[in-house]
Amino acid sequence: MSHHIARRSARVAAVALVALGGLVLAGCTGDDEPAAPSTASTPGASGAPTSSGSATPPGDPTAPATPGDEPGTGPSATAAPASVPTDCTDLVDAATLAELTAVGPLNDPGYFGDQPTGAVTPRAPQPGADLRGVVSAATQLYCGFRDPRADITGILISVATVDAATAEAYPAWLASDESTGDLRTTPSTCTDDLGGTRCQLVTTEPQYGVEYAETVLVRGDVVVTVTQSNAPTDGQLMAAIVARVWG
Fold first, then answer.
1. Nearest CA to 67 among 43, 97, 46?
2. Tens digit of each residue's pLDDT (9 = 90 or more) over 180-202
3. pTM metric for this prediction
């Protein structure tokens, strides 16, 4: 995939576009002059080099034929309790973690600055917050794999525990027009998968013309959100997270 390198002002603008729900990606990567754009591909989470022009869409596609989507993984498949890790390095297996860090370093302070990452403290949602804002405020683990040299390339993962009413309503809300805005130009498509309900949208980031995906899994009272910008995976990232959170 290509790295789109821009000046500090462009980076700040792009960060706002790919924010995870209510989490605002703050920070900068210094005042160095940008180098010439690179056309080299970066390994995606599948471990195989991919480019932003790949025909394989990012994220964890909801189609049943996608690798990692095994039959019998709908909401009634299991009642295993969740155990949310307190460290991003425990969120996936070692091999998947290595593939993610190939996209970008984990929680690089050069990119995130003072923004809390790793285990974070849930907060009260802003007054009038929509359901995405409510879920974002409940985040307890936030992991960012971002290329500090690029404005848009990276994978962000958050895990939140929410109340039963929010968990029940969230998938339908994501599939409605109410959920659109910013990069989310269309509602998500939702399906029963991985022991819960998985919702995904795939679109094109307008400034750079690269693929952007948001994949959300609601299982019990836990919501896992993965956003990917110019960083496709092989469809097994969410399954790797499920294996750690639900065992």
1. 46
2. 777 777 889 999 999 999 999 99
3. 0.69
